[in-house]
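User: C-alpha coordinates in, sequence out, please.
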Protein backbone atom coordinates (compact mmCIF):
# COMPACT_ATOMS: atom_id res chain seq x y z
CA UNK A 1 0.00 0.00 0.00
CA UNK A 2 2.68 2.48 1.02
CA UNK A 3 5.81 3.41 -0.87
CA UNK A 4 8.25 0.65 0.06
CA UNK A 5 11.41 2.74 -0.21
CA UNK A 6 10.04 5.19 2.38
CA UNK A 7 9.51 2.65 5.16
CA UNK A 8 11.26 3.73 8.40
CA UNK A 9 12.71 6.89 6.80
CA UNK A 10 12.91 10.32 8.46
CA UNK A 11 11.38 13.29 6.63
CA UNK A 12 13.13 16.34 8.06
CA UNK A 13 12.90 18.42 4.87
CA UNK A 14 11.15 18.17 1.53
CA UNK A 15 14.44 17.25 -0.20
CA UNK A 16 14.57 14.05 1.87
CA UNK A 17 12.16 12.88 -0.82
CA UNK A 18 13.08 12.33 -4.45
CA UNK A 19 10.91 13.63 -7.27
CA UNK A 20 9.68 10.08 -7.93
CA UNK A 21 8.79 9.60 -4.26
CA UNK A 22 6.88 12.89 -4.18
CA UNK A 23 4.93 11.87 -7.28
CA UNK A 24 4.10 8.51 -5.68
CA UNK A 25 3.05 10.20 -2.43
CA UNK A 26 0.76 12.58 -4.30
CA UNK A 27 -0.84 9.65 -6.13
CA UNK A 28 -1.26 7.72 -2.88
CA UNK A 29 -2.76 10.80 -1.22
CA UNK A 30 -5.21 11.17 -4.12
CA UNK A 31 -6.17 7.50 -3.84
CA UNK A 32 -6.70 7.81 -0.08
CA UNK A 33 -8.74 10.97 -0.56
CA UNK A 34 -11.02 9.33 -3.13
CA UNK A 35 -11.44 6.17 -1.07
CA UNK A 36 -9.74 4.05 -3.72
CA UNK A 37 -7.42 2.76 -1.01
CA UNK A 38 -8.35 2.23 2.64
CA UNK A 39 -5.38 0.84 4.58
CA UNK A 40 -5.72 -0.04 8.25
CA UNK A 41 -3.09 -0.05 10.98
CA UNK A 42 -2.78 -0.38 14.75
CA UNK A 43 0.24 1.89 15.11
CA UNK A 44 0.81 4.80 17.49
CA UNK A 45 1.74 8.32 16.39
CA UNK A 46 3.30 10.76 18.85
CA UNK A 47 2.88 14.51 18.39
CA UNK A 48 5.54 16.60 20.11
CA UNK A 49 4.76 20.25 19.39
CA UNK A 50 6.79 23.04 20.93
CA UNK A 51 4.76 25.56 18.88
CA UNK A 52 1.03 26.19 18.52
CA UNK A 53 -0.77 24.30 15.77
CA UNK A 54 -4.26 23.88 14.34
CA UNK A 55 -4.05 22.29 10.89
CA UNK A 56 -0.95 20.15 11.47
CA UNK A 57 -2.11 18.83 14.83
CA UNK A 58 -5.69 18.12 13.78
CA UNK A 59 -4.86 16.74 10.33
CA UNK A 60 -2.26 14.31 11.69
CA UNK A 61 -4.64 13.22 14.46
CA UNK A 62 -7.58 12.65 12.11
CA UNK A 63 -5.36 10.90 9.55
CA UNK A 64 -4.04 8.44 12.11
CA UNK A 65 -7.48 7.77 13.60
CA UNK A 66 -8.89 7.12 10.11
CA UNK A 67 -6.10 4.60 9.56
CA UNK A 68 -7.15 2.82 12.75
CA UNK A 69 -4.14 3.93 14.77
CA UNK A 70 -3.81 5.98 17.94
CA UNK A 71 -2.31 9.38 18.69
CA UNK A 72 -0.52 10.57 21.84
CA UNK A 73 -0.23 14.31 22.35
CA UNK A 74 3.18 14.83 23.97
CA UNK A 75 2.53 18.40 25.06
CA UNK A 76 5.84 19.86 26.33
CA UNK A 77 3.91 21.64 29.09
CA UNK A 78 2.89 18.34 30.68
CA UNK A 79 5.88 16.14 29.81
CA UNK A 80 9.46 16.22 30.98
CA UNK A 81 10.74 17.79 27.75
CA UNK A 82 9.21 21.03 29.02
CA UNK A 83 11.41 20.77 32.13
CA UNK A 84 14.63 20.39 30.20
CA UNK A 85 15.00 16.66 29.64
CA UNK A 86 17.62 16.25 26.88
CA UNK A 87 16.35 15.40 23.42
CA UNK A 88 18.67 12.41 23.35
CA UNK A 89 16.96 10.93 26.41
CA UNK A 90 13.42 11.76 25.26
CA UNK A 91 14.04 10.32 21.80
CA UNK A 92 15.39 7.02 23.10
CA UNK A 93 12.48 6.57 25.50
CA UNK A 94 9.81 7.43 22.94
CA UNK A 95 11.50 5.01 20.56
CA UNK A 96 10.48 2.21 22.94
CA UNK A 97 6.83 3.32 23.20
CA UNK A 98 5.54 4.63 19.88
CA UNK A 99 5.86 3.82 16.19
CA UNK A 100 6.33 7.25 14.60
CA UNK A 101 6.88 10.81 15.85
CA UNK A 102 5.96 14.19 14.34
CA UNK A 103 7.85 17.12 15.85
CA UNK A 104 7.08 20.84 15.56
CA UNK A 105 9.96 22.86 16.90
CA UNK A 106 11.98 26.04 16.49
CA UNK A 107 15.36 24.60 15.52
CA UNK A 108 16.04 22.21 12.66
CA UNK A 109 18.92 20.81 14.72
CA UNK A 110 16.36 19.55 17.28
CA UNK A 111 14.78 17.40 14.57
CA UNK A 112 18.17 16.12 13.52
CA UNK A 113 18.90 15.14 17.12
CA UNK A 114 15.60 13.27 17.46
CA UNK A 115 16.44 11.42 14.24
CA UNK A 116 19.93 10.62 15.53
CA UNK A 117 18.73 8.97 18.75
CA UNK A 118 15.40 7.38 17.71
CA UNK A 119 15.03 4.48 15.30
CA UNK A 120 11.38 5.25 14.56
CA UNK A 121 10.55 7.63 11.68
CA UNK A 122 10.69 11.34 12.55
CA UNK A 123 8.56 13.82 10.60
CA UNK A 124 9.20 17.55 10.48
CA UNK A 125 5.81 19.05 11.40
CA UNK A 126 7.37 22.53 11.02
CA UNK A 127 10.68 24.03 12.03
CA UNK A 128 12.08 27.50 11.52
CA UNK A 129 13.89 26.18 8.44
CA UNK A 130 11.26 24.09 6.64
CA UNK A 131 7.63 22.94 6.52
CA UNK A 132 7.67 19.88 4.21
CA UNK A 133 4.19 18.57 5.07
CA UNK A 134 2.66 21.88 4.01
CA UNK A 135 4.38 21.80 0.66
CA UNK A 136 3.16 18.26 -0.07
CA UNK A 137 -0.39 19.57 0.45
CA UNK A 138 0.36 22.53 -1.82
CA UNK A 139 1.65 20.24 -4.56
CA UNK A 140 -1.42 18.01 -4.30
CA UNK A 141 -3.68 21.07 -4.58
CA UNK A 142 -1.78 22.33 -7.64
CA UNK A 143 -2.00 18.89 -9.25
CA UNK A 144 -5.75 18.77 -8.62
CA UNK A 145 -6.22 22.20 -10.20
CA UNK A 146 -3.95 21.87 -13.25
CA UNK A 147 -3.67 18.13 -13.75
CA UNK A 148 0.08 18.37 -13.29
CA UNK A 149 2.83 19.97 -11.20
CA UNK A 150 5.76 20.00 -13.61
CA UNK A 151 5.90 23.15 -15.71
CA UNK A 152 3.47 25.11 -13.53
CA UNK A 153 4.57 28.68 -12.72
CA UNK A 154 4.12 29.62 -9.05
CA UNK A 155 4.92 32.83 -7.20
CA UNK A 156 5.47 33.16 -3.46
CA UNK A 157 5.04 36.69 -2.07
CA UNK A 158 6.10 37.91 1.36
CA UNK A 159 8.64 36.61 3.85
CA UNK A 160 11.32 34.16 2.67
CA UNK A 161 10.49 31.86 5.58
CA UNK A 162 10.27 28.12 6.28
CA UNK A 163 7.29 27.68 3.94
CA UNK A 164 9.11 29.56 1.18
CA UNK A 165 12.18 27.35 1.70
CA UNK A 166 10.25 24.10 1.31
CA UNK A 167 8.28 25.54 -1.62
CA UNK A 168 11.48 26.44 -3.47
CA UNK A 169 13.01 23.02 -2.86
CA UNK A 170 9.83 21.09 -3.66
CA UNK A 171 9.20 23.14 -6.78
CA UNK A 172 12.75 22.55 -8.01
CA UNK A 173 12.39 18.79 -7.54
CA UNK A 174 9.07 18.76 -9.38
CA UNK A 175 10.13 20.87 -12.37
CA UNK A 176 8.11 23.96 -11.49
CA UNK A 177 8.92 27.55 -12.36
CA UNK A 178 9.25 29.14 -8.92
CA UNK A 179 9.40 32.88 -8.31
CA UNK A 180 9.86 34.37 -4.86
CA UNK A 181 9.37 38.10 -4.27
CA UNK A 182 10.40 39.49 -0.88
CA UNK A 183 11.97 42.61 0.59
CA UNK A 184 15.76 42.41 0.26
CA UNK A 185 16.30 41.85 3.99
CA UNK A 186 13.84 38.94 4.09
CA UNK A 187 14.85 36.81 1.13
CA UNK A 188 15.16 33.03 1.50
CA UNK A 189 18.44 31.68 2.86
CA UNK A 190 21.04 31.60 0.06
CA UNK A 191 22.02 28.04 0.99
CA UNK A 192 18.44 26.88 0.41
CA UNK A 193 18.26 28.63 -2.96
CA UNK A 194 21.58 27.13 -4.01
CA UNK A 195 20.47 23.66 -2.91
CA UNK A 196 17.25 24.06 -4.90
CA UNK A 197 19.19 25.02 -8.01
CA UNK A 198 21.37 21.94 -7.61
CA UNK A 199 18.27 19.75 -7.24
CA UNK A 200 16.36 21.38 -10.11
CA UNK A 201 15.24 19.05 -12.86
CA UNK A 202 15.00 20.05 -16.51
CA UNK A 203 12.44 22.80 -16.93
CA UNK A 204 12.63 23.98 -13.34
CA UNK A 205 13.29 27.65 -12.75
CA UNK A 206 14.03 29.60 -9.56
CA UNK A 207 13.87 33.40 -9.52
CA UNK A 208 14.40 35.50 -6.38
CA UNK A 209 13.40 39.14 -6.72
CA UNK A 210 12.22 42.21 -4.84
CA UNK A 211 9.63 43.06 -7.50
CA UNK A 212 6.21 41.56 -6.65
CA UNK A 213 4.50 42.66 -9.86
CA UNK A 214 7.20 41.22 -12.11
CA UNK A 215 7.17 37.99 -10.10
CA UNK A 216 3.40 37.53 -10.42
CA UNK A 217 3.15 38.22 -14.17
CA UNK A 218 1.60 35.20 -15.87
CA UNK A 219 1.83 33.07 -12.74
CA UNK A 220 -0.63 30.19 -12.36
CA UNK A 221 -0.24 29.98 -8.58
CA UNK A 222 0.04 32.93 -6.20
CA UNK A 223 1.07 31.87 -2.71
CA UNK A 224 1.59 33.79 0.51
CA UNK A 225 2.10 33.35 4.25
CA UNK A 226 2.06 35.60 7.30
CA UNK A 227 4.69 38.32 7.37
CA UNK A 228 5.86 37.40 10.88
CA UNK A 229 6.17 33.71 11.72
CA UNK A 230 5.77 32.17 15.17
CA UNK A 231 8.45 33.59 17.43
CA UNK A 232 8.63 36.86 15.47
CA UNK A 233 5.51 38.46 16.95
CA UNK A 234 7.47 41.34 18.49
CA UNK A 235 8.46 42.58 15.04
CA UNK A 236 5.08 42.00 13.37
CA UNK A 237 3.84 45.59 13.52
CA UNK A 238 7.10 47.08 12.28
CA UNK A 239 7.16 44.73 9.27
CA UNK A 240 3.84 45.89 7.81
CA UNK A 241 5.09 48.97 5.87
CA UNK A 242 8.00 46.98 4.41
CA UNK A 243 5.81 44.09 3.29
CA UNK A 244 2.76 46.07 2.13
CA UNK A 245 3.78 45.97 -1.58
CA UNK A 246 3.73 42.16 -1.35
CA UNK A 247 0.12 41.88 -0.21
CA UNK A 248 -1.95 39.45 -2.27
CA UNK A 249 -4.84 41.66 -3.33
CA UNK A 250 -7.03 42.03 -6.40
CA UNK A 251 -4.66 44.56 -7.97
CA UNK A 252 -1.61 42.31 -7.87
CA UNK A 253 -3.65 39.23 -8.77
CA UNK A 254 -4.67 40.98 -11.99
CA UNK A 255 -1.07 40.54 -13.22
CA UNK A 256 -1.26 36.76 -12.80
CA UNK A 257 -2.66 34.25 -15.27
CA UNK A 258 -6.42 34.63 -15.67
CA UNK A 259 -6.92 31.09 -14.31
CA UNK A 260 -4.46 31.53 -11.44
CA UNK A 261 -5.24 30.01 -8.05
CA UNK A 262 -4.40 31.54 -4.66
CA UNK A 263 -2.83 29.53 -1.84
CA UNK A 264 -2.15 30.40 1.80
CA UNK A 265 -0.85 27.91 4.38
CA UNK A 266 -2.89 29.58 7.17
CA UNK A 267 -3.47 31.07 9.67
CA UNK A 268 -4.11 34.24 7.66
CA UNK A 269 -3.95 37.83 8.86
CA UNK A 270 -6.65 39.24 6.62
CA UNK A 271 -5.90 42.77 5.55
CA UNK A 272 -2.15 42.20 5.90
CA UNK A 273 -0.56 39.58 3.63
CA UNK A 274 -3.87 38.80 1.91
CA UNK A 275 -7.16 40.67 1.54
CA UNK A 276 -10.57 39.41 2.53
CA UNK A 277 -11.75 39.68 -1.08
CA UNK A 278 -8.98 37.43 -2.37
CA UNK A 279 -9.02 34.73 0.31
CA UNK A 280 -12.80 34.47 -0.06
CA UNK A 281 -12.73 34.95 -3.84
CA UNK A 282 -13.29 32.52 -6.68
CA UNK A 283 -9.56 31.98 -7.24
CA UNK A 284 -8.86 30.92 -3.66
CA UNK A 285 -8.07 27.26 -3.10
CA UNK A 286 -7.06 27.81 0.52
CA UNK A 287 -9.64 25.45 2.01
CA UNK A 288 -8.85 22.64 -0.44
CA UNK A 289 -5.19 23.19 0.43
CA UNK A 290 -5.95 22.92 4.16
CA UNK A 291 -7.95 19.70 3.65
CA UNK A 292 -5.12 18.22 1.64
CA UNK A 293 -2.83 18.44 4.67
CA UNK A 294 -4.71 15.43 6.05
CA UNK A 295 -4.50 13.39 2.87
CA UNK A 296 -0.77 13.88 2.20
CA UNK A 297 0.08 13.24 5.84
CA UNK A 298 -1.99 10.08 5.78
CA UNK A 299 0.03 9.01 2.71
CA UNK A 300 3.23 9.79 4.62
CA UNK A 301 2.11 7.75 7.63
CA UNK A 302 1.15 4.79 5.44
CA UNK A 303 4.49 4.89 3.63
CA UNK A 304 6.81 5.53 6.57
CA UNK A 305 5.11 2.86 8.67
CA UNK A 306 5.10 0.35 5.79
CA UNK A 307 1.35 -0.27 6.04
CA UNK A 308 0.16 -2.79 3.46
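Assistant: Sequence out:
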Amino acid sequence: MGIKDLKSRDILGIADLSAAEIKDLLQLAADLKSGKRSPVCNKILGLLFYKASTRTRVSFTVAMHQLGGQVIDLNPNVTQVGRGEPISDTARVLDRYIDILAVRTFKQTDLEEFARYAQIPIINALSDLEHPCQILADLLTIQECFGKVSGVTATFLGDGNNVAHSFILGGALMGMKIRVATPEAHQPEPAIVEKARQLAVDGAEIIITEDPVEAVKGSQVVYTDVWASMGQEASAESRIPMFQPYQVNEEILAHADSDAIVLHCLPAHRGEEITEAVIEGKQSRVWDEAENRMHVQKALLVSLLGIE
